[in-house]
Specification:
The complex is a heterodimer of chains A (about 200) and B (about 400). Chain A is an alpha/beta fold. Chain A has helices at about 20-30, 70-75, 95-100, 100-110, 135-145, 160-175, 190-195, and strands spanning about 10-15, 45-55, 55-65, 85-90, 115-120, 145-150. Chain B folds into three domains: about 5-55, no CATH class; about 60-85 and about 110-170 and about 195-270, no CATH class; about 275-395, Orthogonal Bundle (Cyclin A, domain 1). Chain B has a two-stranded antiparallel sheet with strand order 1-2. The chains are: A alpha/beta (about 200), B mainly alpha (about 400). Chain A: Belongs to the small GTPase superfamily. Rab family.
Chain lengths: ~200, ~400
Amino acid sequence: MAKKTYDLLFKLLLIGDSGVGKTCILFRFSDDAFTSTFISTIGIDFKIKTVELRGKKIKLQIWDTAGQERFHTITTSYYRGAMGIMLVYDITNEKSFENIVKWLRNIDEHANEDVEKMILGNKCDMTDKRVVNKERGEAIAREHGIRFMETSAKSNINIERAFCELAEAILDKTSGRESAENPERVIIDRRNNEKAPGYSKCCA
Amino acid sequence: MSMFKARVKEFEDVLAAPQDLIDLKQLRQLTFNGVPDVQSFRALSWKLLLGYLGPRRSSWASTLAQKRALYRQFIEELVLPPGHANKGAGDDVDSRGVGLQDHPLSEGPESAWNTFFNDNEFLLQIDKDVRRLCPDISFFQQPTDYPCDIVVHSKGEHGRRLHERVVPAVLSSANVERKGLGMTKINLITKRSVENYAAMEEGQEAHWEVVQRILFIYAKLNPGQGYVQGMNEIVGPIYYVMASDPDLSYRAHAEADCFFCFTALMGEIRDFFIKTLDDAEGGIKCMMARLSNMLKAKDIGIYEQLKSQELHPQYYSFRWLTLLLSQEFPLPDVLRIWDSVFSDEQRFDFLIRICCSMILIQREAILENDFASNVKLLQNYPPIDINVVITHAVTLA
């Protein structure tokens, strides 16, 4: 049987309107490549990538979902098990940005309460087609108290960083529960600790 | 080679025989074992098996003429922008009753222009998907030899090509520099996006544009269902078969014929695409359960392994079944699978058997693998001789 080659397993989910580039983001992260010729995702897809954070090997199990309404009954069943969710919109598509609110509502309905969230404004390389400026993305993220980043799967901007930051946020939570393994950190109050931002933001 | 010739002969005997009535039972038996890639055998067999053509050869000419004329009418009424010049009409009301009161800024519910703009919502989705159709072959990006004349000759009118409605026209921007003495230098910048499919010249259109029109018309005519992602993967192989028919008198009408074959097939599988029918008999969850039950009956070991790994059937079989396996194999293999699936009178029993065989064939790997490797295996099925899968499926009674 396969040996356990990692310390922690994190389950992540990518959601957002159809065509915003969820599959491309995942492909960039897992295979470090880009192609604009992806077929549309039907139902749900899956990738694995192992990263190292704070000396721990973390296996990321990432689920990529279909964006269209029809598939929601299939895809929302994955929300429950997810520890982190990436909400993706396309900076060249106004509608996909407006729908972020709808996706957030979906998370409230179907995901665990303490799931880590992050909003990604993808396709930020397409400056001449931009219709959603960065400030609007930042504003909605601030309003809901979640992280935000602009990304480009094509130009490889912020993709690795986004996944690592999300993983790190989850790690902060989990390591609160296993503090003995983490001697450098002094934990005074677990509840405060969960909200404390600003740990090193780099992926090993 | 002689075996191949014998098969061709069998098809000739069934399809091209002098008698009027085609023996559908015999045709089913033949197509079940795969249609040879010669003559119009596959295109014609599919038309018959999907019920687009009746078994009487003498009825074909009138059926085809009637359906193709009907499709032409759909294009005129549903695709062309409102108020397009109606042939020979001298009055100010065209075929859709677009009178002088209606105009592009009208928001009235009766306004044909209002509908026109509302359509663009689902058209945008179709547009994204048809551009992503079968990216591993170049066929869909090639120009068709039989473009739709009323669409490709725009006469300067914007929006006859459906994608023009949803992809904003490229506006050229210019840098204007003024230098002394009133000299003005204008640098015209036109950025061309490389990933956009090359626009065809006036009078030409690519196969994906034709597929886009078929899906658009289908969605317009079935408003309760509309367009659902994945329908592009169903129409794709049918269109490919019709549009590569060696008989040019058929190929010229690939669009209309494909539309009706697609509509007929959707009539049988449309429940897969409707969320509210997921739990109904004939809905996708019911199909997944049938596969799961068959797997359990055939090989409890694999069934238990997947179950203990919490590898739920919807991780893989949702897509397998909804798309009739069209995303799992290369196009020629998909055509071969569909030969058998279409000839199955108890549709979709055989499809489920093929799916079950796909799992059983990977038995050793599945029992050995962990969860992640198994999901990967089933979501990206390894290359295989498709006949091995089909032969295996035949043995599963």
